[in-house]
């Protein structure tokens, strides 16, 4: 798998750490346990294009939102996580 | 010798000596092991997998199911080498497998008499019960009886290299189509990599008598290679087998670098693993000839017609003197002609197709019929049945079988693309290969040379927008389907390598294994090292016939990587032994080694475990002596491996408040605080210290194991969760050498090192932090204690770590200054009840560790909401306790289970386990930390501590986890 890091260019997936499907925005404590349960545990586990959080550990240390097809490892868009539209 | 005196592509001026099963033989430069064996008259090369039937060379390529030989001896022994794929080299030693004492006389051939019990599903039916017999009886029995060569069990003495390459066009296969494609792309200025597994490019052009542009095929191939060599963007890799297609348009290949050299230069790798990334990949991988299922089709002397052609034309080695050709495609007639031209008597061409074949010249009498039997240990006669059902026997020692062609399309399946059945071609093809993958030539069903060349030229032109040059639409010929001769029996083989017969497939279908995937698992059809290249399609056609369906409806198996077997050594490359992972050395490693340290691997780090001194009986003695020195004088220990992260910025304090479960924003500058981080699910993630160096600058420490994970976690918090926070974090683990100075004499020692700083208790109290200078460089000093003694940690730039350690040793010589290692560190922290790796197991809460009161109720932080779930605060949870044996002579072991006294030792009564153990010099006995259900309420209770693995049990008394100085007076003194 090759990921086009917005900072570093086209890099092998071995340089990255994959966290999993990108969760929605973090709730606040006041939102309660149920909101956190959804945030921590609920994932769709879909077969197809999925938005994921990848960390360029051996590069710029940026967290990225990577679109990856879970069936073929085809990479779609790659964006800086903090700036990505949720 | 069966070698012709002239012709072929072998160099008779360069003879090569080799041995086969110890017998000296001779071949020529240009030979493969298979062609040399044929030239030496060898008919039987090994025994079959299940029935130990004698087998001869069947093919000329990677599909060879029979001639699997072990090359070399000792540690370099290479089992399962396919003889047609082995280039002959001076001194080569080759051995048959799966036979004893010899392939001609094999005692295990008795298996053949019991063949009824080796039917489809034999493993499942025979070796089912009792389960206890599996490991001790059945498995060794099966392994001895049915083996595929043996590994040497010794370290591989060879080295392996690895390379990466990038190309616009990767061309796989250097036959007519591949060379055409590579030339076309090269002429367009593209970066081209051409790989071919053979030692000599040309593919079938080397085996068939054909002309291209008025030149013999082999000559044309040489000219093409010569032209490619003039293009500086073209790389030609011969002896290089592509083994897999992977995502991101990347491909794996293995190049034989020195295997074929009689005397490779020192340090030359045996093989090189190539990772190739290519925008476009053109697969000119040719086609594999498929066998015909008839009784006795595995007898030595029965050979694929294309292989016969290769051995006769390319190697001038004659596999027989009197031949017949059993063919249902026109290519068989060319083989008959080649045999006749080489002086072999062709007795008959047996063709089951009715009617004359216009445009095909028959060299011999054509019998419209089928071969229904073979006879002799090595082939002596065949039985032929003509269309009228009349049989006759023919005396031949060679039967060339041409059952049609299967395009080599397996690489598309590597990326999940299933093949489709083509009715006109009567073969599986790839109509819609994955992006960037193109099949050309015979791999696309264009079997004839001119069609293959047109196809390759046209597809490259189309790829690069030159549609004007695209070839005309291809007229697909009408070809014959895979053939199973009617009435053939259990000696008619479909998968030669795994001894799967026609009757096995028929039986499996009768028993309900109706899908090709089930058939594969049940009969092992297609599971051997050839991965079904020879017989799989034939087996699936047979399954379709049994079900009364078309082959398209039954389908075939998706091929998976590797296409051909790959040595693990090639994949491992140099990453073996100590080179598997990088080694990290602490800044004081050399000093520690000079002090007699024994090192232990802690992740990638080598850490001093203990320092052996004269008089130490064993490592426990050393560790106890070191721990006593810390409790009574002063010890020094390199703790640089702990993660160190600097956090800075106006919002740094707010960030840390959200990362740690306890308050951090309130920490004053010049102070240190112990902190616990939770995961968002509420369990403990990591612990360490937070030192506030300035209002907007902190340095935090992590455990050694989690240094990387905590850095990642902080980056996630800063970049993903709270991108609006104005703070930055950076790992400085590598930048600072940090040394713990612990014990009653630590202040005196450090005061000698830092005479200008007032280290008195009032000026620099417990949990103080300061920045200063030492030896002309920045220095940080923290008054923190893991041992429970008066203690400090001093940090200096990494390059000064060694000098610092030597200076402390020198200054402390009269203070009892003693280096201590990880084992003493463990004793000291276990005596103090501090949690470490054994306790921070990812399943404990702050409350479980007795740190519940630290958890803030006043702020949001990562993990707060879910840590408050009822189950994470339940009173039955296992919590940290101390344990000491009732009998002080007992030694407890880590991992032991804790049960109430007087109940049966079983899982239902399990109440916890021992997480850490140490011999405590303070207590004069072994002590332990453990996680025990309702442990806080059980102080003083005697429990049964059992290790079913070590078969030990002892009574221990539950205590507070803090064994030494529970009031903490020493560290504040």
TrEMBL record, chain A:
This is Sarcosine oxidase subunit delta. The lineage of its organism: Bacteria, Pseudomonadati, Pseudomonadota, Alphaproteobacteria, Sphingomonadales. One of its GO terms (molecular function) is sarcosine oxidase activity. It comes from Croceicoccus ponticola. GO terms for biological process: tetrahydrofolate metabolic process. It holds the Pfam family SoxD. InterPro entries: SoxD (IPR006279), SoxD_sf (IPR038561).
From TrEMBL, chain B:
Residues 589-859 form the GCVT N-terminal domain. The keyword Oxidoreductase applies. GO terms for molecular function: sarcosine oxidase activity. Residues 880-965 form the Aminomethyltransferase C-terminal domain. InterPro entries: 2Fe-2S-bd_N, FAD/NAD-bd_sf, FAD/NAD-binding_dom, GcvT/YgfZ/DmdA, GcvT/YgfZ_C, GcvT_C, GCVT_N, Sarcosine_oxidase_asu. The keyword Cell cycle does not apply. SUPFAM superfamilies: Aminomethyltransferase beta-barrel domain, FAD/NAD(P)-binding domain, Folate-binding domain. Keywords: Oxidoreductase. Gene3D superfamilies: 2Fe-2S iron-sulphur cluster binding domain, sarcosine oxidase, alpha subunit, N-terminal domain, FAD/NAD(P)-binding domain, Probable tRNA modification gtpase trme, domain 1. This is Sarcosine oxidase subunit alpha family protein.
